[in-house]
């Protein structure tokens, strides 16, 4: 009996644990997570399916002791949350949905970030379980879902007009999703002409279908920062993106359309937000932005009741917690303190967050965590080649030494 218990006990548990974190299981978890992240309208109670997935994955990775946090990450997060909670409880500003924001920033967003960190380490040595063909197929599915107006998965959004947003709440969320996954694929590629063509084709397709013109900016940053020693290829790719941007979206950035954005939308929101920061640079806590713009005598297009952040992520985080908010943005979206390679990996999202509130996106935290692990753990191609050459040289030297000894 003791022998039987020894065989079926610890070994059985270890086999089960190995199955839970085997490469195939991790691939399955990853694909399921991406699917659930895209189904933004599907909820159980007040929780999205993707949020439940993130909590479950975090629990699994914690049990397997595969969750790692840097000291600077813990410090930046702790300072931001402590100051934001203190301001929320003590300052006398009116608030809307402050409790909901607290749950997101204290529980949901950190869970996605840590899960992303764990997945980033998992895929350092092997390829992702998806490819560009699957991404294009899923983009087609988004188009079909919207055209058929499928219940549960799709809800009509008035201000989206004819733009493609599919199973997402808005078109920018769809653009962030497809860009981020394509970016992960591009990082693992050999940066050949075909890889650049696939990546750029997906970015242009998403921009044309969704009308999200800003997605082309991070695409250009990726091509500039991730392609090495191919200046001509960089120039061709960037020029192609600029041509598409000019002929497709130039009308939206000129004349009356530009005046509206500057005087009634983003420009006005930026000026008002700067005034709020100058008035109280310590911060205002959670739930303040939505309450302020909902009751403000100055109407700003896109802000008010139902919108809990302004268009600029670092400025919005500063409205919440002052300087600790900016520090949190620098650490988690800018990669400050994690090395130059990590900062280059995060630079497209950091630039995008200057004009879009992606700090309110669960997917953004998931991808940021992934990119931090990738930037800190991946080996540059040149370094890999040098190490291989070094090993080959050592082998050649050793063989020559053995041959000379035999001859002597």
What are the key terms here?
single chain, 408 residues, mainly alpha, 2 domains, two-stranded antiparallel ribbon, 19 helices, 2 strands, globular, disordered N terminus
Blueprint (SSEs and pairs):
Blueprint: H1 2-8, H2 10-20, H3 23-38, E1 43-44, E2 47-48, H4 49-63, H5 71-90, H6 98-122, H7 132-148, H8 171-188, H9 193-210, H10 216-226, H11 231-249, H12 255-263, H13 266-279, H14 288-295, H15 313-321, H16 323-332, H17 340-352, H18 362-377, H19 381-407
Antiparallel strand pairs: 1-2
Helix pairs in contact: 1-2, 3-4, 4-6, 5-16, 6-18, 7-9, 8-9, 8-18, 9-11, 10-11, 10-17, 13-15, 15-16, 17-18
Shape type: globular
N→C terminal distance: 63 Å
How many structural domains in the coordinates?
2
Determine Rg (CA atoms, Å).
24 Å
Number of H- or I-type helical stretches: 19
Q: Beta-strand percentage?
A: under 5%
As a percent range, the share of helical residues equals 55-70%
State mean pLDDT (0 to 100 scale).
84
Would you tell me the structural class of the helices and strands? Answer: mainly alpha
Low-confidence stretches: 1-17, 380-396
Counting DSSP E segments of at least 2 residues, the number of strands comes to 2
Tell me the major beta sheet. Answer: 2 strands, antiparallel
Strands of the largest sheet, in order across it? 1-2
Question: What's the order of the H and E elements?
Answer: HHHEEHHHHHHHHHHHHHHHH
């Amino acid at each position: 009996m003791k022998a039987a218990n020894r065989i079926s006990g610890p070994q059985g548990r270890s086999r089960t644990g190995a199955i839970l974190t085997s490469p195939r299981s991790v691939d399955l978890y990853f694909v399921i997570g991406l699917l659930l992240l895209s189904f933004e309208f599907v909820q159980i109670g007040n929780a999205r399916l993707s949020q439940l997935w993130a909590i479950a994955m975090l629990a699994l990775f914690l049990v397997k002791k595969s969750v790692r946090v840097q000291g600077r990450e813990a410090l930046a997060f702790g300072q931001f949350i402590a100051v934001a909670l203190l301001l929320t409880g003590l300052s006398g500003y009116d608030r809307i949905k402050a409790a909901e924001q607290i749950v997101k920033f204290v529980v949901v967003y950190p869970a996605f970030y840590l899960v992303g960190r764990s997945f980033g380490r998992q895929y350092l040595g092997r390829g992702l379980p998806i490819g560009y063909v699957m991404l294009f197929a899923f983009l087609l599915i988004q188009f079909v879902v919207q055209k058929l107006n499928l219940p549960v998965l799709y809800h009509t959004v008035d201000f989206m007009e004819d733009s493609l947003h599919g199973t997402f709440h808005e078109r920018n969320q769809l653009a962030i999703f497809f860009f981020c996954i394509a970016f992960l694929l591009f990082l693992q590629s050999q940066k050949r002409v075909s890889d650049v063509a696939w990546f750029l084709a997906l970015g242009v397709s998403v921009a044309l279908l969704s009308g999200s013109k800003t997605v082309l900016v991070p695409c250009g940053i990726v091509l500039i920062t991730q392609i090495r020693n191919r200046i001509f290829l960089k120039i061709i790719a960037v020029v192609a993106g600029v041509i598409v941007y000019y002929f497709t979206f130039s009308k939206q950035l000129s004349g009356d359309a530009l005046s509206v954005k500057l005087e009634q939308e983003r420009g006005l929101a930026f000026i008002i937000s700067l005034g709020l920061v100058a008035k109280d640079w310590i911060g205002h806590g959670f739930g303040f932005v939505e309450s302020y713009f909902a009751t403000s005598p100055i109407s700003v297009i896109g802000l008010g009741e139902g919108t809990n952040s302004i268009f600029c992520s670092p400025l919005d985080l500063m409205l919440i917690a002052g300087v600790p908010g900016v520090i949190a943005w620098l650490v988690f979206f800018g990669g400050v303190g994690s090395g130059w390679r990590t900062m280059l990996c995060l630079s497209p999202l950091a630039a995008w967050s200057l004009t879009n509130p992606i700090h309110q996106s669960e997917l953004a935290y998931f991808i940021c965590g992934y990119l931090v692990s990738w930037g800190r753990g991946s080996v540059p191609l040149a370094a890999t080649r040098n190490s291989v050459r070094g090993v080959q040289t050592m082998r050649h030297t050793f063989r020559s030494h053995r041959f000379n000894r035999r001859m002597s």
